Every structure is written in C-alpha cells, then in structure tokens.
Amino acid sequence: MGEAFDREKSLERQIRAFHWIRLLAELPGRFAGSPAEREAAERIESWMRDLGVEDVQRQAVPSRPTAGLVLALHLGLAAFACLLGGGLGVLLAGLAAASVRAELRRGISLLSRALPCPDSLNVVGRAGARHPGQRVVLSAHIDSAQAGWLFTRPVADFFARRASRRPAHTPPPLGPNALPEAAVIAAAALLLAVWLGADGFLVGAARLLLGLGLAAGCAATLQWALAPASPGANDNASAVAAMLTCAEQLLAQLPDDVELWIVGTGAEEVGCRGMHAFVSAHAQWPTETTYFVNFECVGGGSLHWVRSEGTLAKSGFPPTLVELARRVAASGVFGEVTPVDLIAGTDGHVPADRGFPSLSLISLEQGGVPRHYHRVEDVPEAVDLPTVIRAADFGAAVGRAALRGEAGPIAIL
Fold it and tell me: 44: domain CATH number?
C-alpha cells in the first residue's frame, strides 16, 4: 500500500514538473532582459504563490550583453587589427586583449559597454522565520540561450573530451572561453613584435593565419548571437521545476527557526548577474548558517553535484555541503549521484566564492554535456522527469542534512 502511494505521489510530481517545464519552454526567447524573461518570471511568481509562499517579489538586476556578441566584438576587433597592422593595429589588438581578459576572467565590461543589455530580473520568494537561526536558499536561473552552431553535438563533445583528459580542478587549455582569449592575446603579441621589427615569411604567415582564425571565430560567435532561441526545457526549465519541487518539500516540514528563500535568477547566461545581485544584497547573512542549493540542467543523464567549475579558472565549493552531498549520495536512497568538475559555470559558484556553503546539482550525458545543451532539440518531451524529481529530492535531503548538522539516516527521511 505504501509503495503504491509513493509511486502515485511521484507520478503526480512528475506531471506537475512537466507542466511547469512546458509553460516555460513556450517562451523560448527568454533571454536576459527580454519580454519573454519577464513573462517567465511572472509565471514562476504565480507558481511560488501556489506553493503557499506569500512573500514573492520581482527585482530588477543589471544585465550584460549576450556572450555571442561580446566574443564577436573582441574577435572581430582583433581580426581587423591583424589586417590593419602598424601602431594602430597594435593599439586595437591590445585594447581587445585587455578587454576580453577583463570580461571573461573578472566579469568587468569594457568594450562591451557599447552593446545593448537591458536590465534582467530575479523572482524571489521568502517563507519561514523572520529572525532565523538558519536559512536555506534554493535557486535556478530562468533565462535561456540561443542555439548556435557552436553547440552542435560534435563541437560540444570536442570540448568535453579535452576537459576529461585534464586533472580535476584545472580547466582545459583550449576550452570554450580560453581559446578566444588566447587568440586575441596572441594577435596583440604578434602585432607588437611586427611593429618592433619582426619580419619574415613565418611571421607573415602567422599573422595571416591568426587573422583568418579570428575572423572565423567572429563569424561563428556572431552566428551564435543571432541564432534561433533554444526552447530551454532542460536548460533551465527542468531546474526551475526541481527548485519548486524541492521548495514544496522543505516548506512542508520547515523548522520554526529556519527561513527559506526561493530564487529564480535572471541573466545567468550572461555572467550569473542575477545571482551576483541577490548575493550582494544579502552579503550580511552569516556564512555559518546560510546554505545555498542551486539547480542547473537536471533534465536528463547522470545526476551530479558540482565539485569545481569554470572555463578559465576553476572555482571550488566550500566543503560543508559538498561533504554532506557525498554522505547523502552514499546512502543509496537517491540512486547514483556522483561529483563532477565542470568546464562551464553555474550560479552556484557565486555564493561559494563569497564563502557560503553551496551546492550545485546538474545532470550530464555520457560525453559530459547537459542534454541538448543550447540546441533547438531542448524540448519538454526530451526531459527525463524522474531525474528532475530525483534532483529535487536530493537537494532537499542535503538541505535538511545541513540544518540538522549531519547527513545520517534521520536527515534524509
């Protein structure tokens, strides 16, 4: 009788998760700052209220231009510098190199300030104690991305294979952001050498090949910026559904001294700007008693908790929730859940970098890439609903374990 009830309850949650995923995937162009993103936030706000969360707000947050346009601008400027040569070429290439490094490594906009970037928004719900002893923050981003050629399966698998050959916690030398940065810096260095007197066939050939490569990169990233929208069912509607499912569980048994926050972040695809804004607004929260659980692309493949992430430099996660995740996974209650070192980034690294105990959950296909990542095939029918529910249950278990201070059997019931 109990097993039949559990199966029925699981099926009900899968049906509702699919409903949420489908309604978000109906808004494929929910890019940061777009009308579709605002509509997605309104729908998520309504779903939070349906769960019984009365304190829900939508908050404007600064955004950034799309990654495709940013890369196309810097690669194109460096390619033009290679064509131009001379002192002006050196100046333009040096400017492109300094700007792309600041953009990709520190999130500082220099040249990209000239590109359009309307404000994005977060949808934030709060429930529980007003003066809490502990708090849990659940998050998932609500914006989506374009389905460019750069994310076709062969290209994605190429970068994933390179990453898999590297030691843990170290990014690949020619990863998706490392390659454009290296090419622009190489152009600046080569043009400076030519301006200072370097000459010869090999130097000329290198300048020509580098210029052509930069032009090709500019074309590819511009195509990405102008490509059709991905429906974003896995990335990231599946994670929104997992976040809401997890919130429902925690709300049902929320201790009197615990505060629960549910955060649908905007502008994740352009530098995690929504999460940066949220964490900055609550920087005074004590790191010892505030726990972040983030969901990202949990709609198919093997379920993982993120041990480290990053394309140019790896960010680790504070050990508290990482260790609790390991212990909860070892119980076997949630099937196989394992650690992973990502070559991409999630919202989870933002609070982790500020010292907050943080967990980021993601599901990956065999090649180490999320299912239908940034592709037009990322539709609701391709989402594996049991994985969505399993991610929600695992996140709730780790959250409870953190609140109890342990990850023993009592913490995962």
Answer: 3.40.630.10
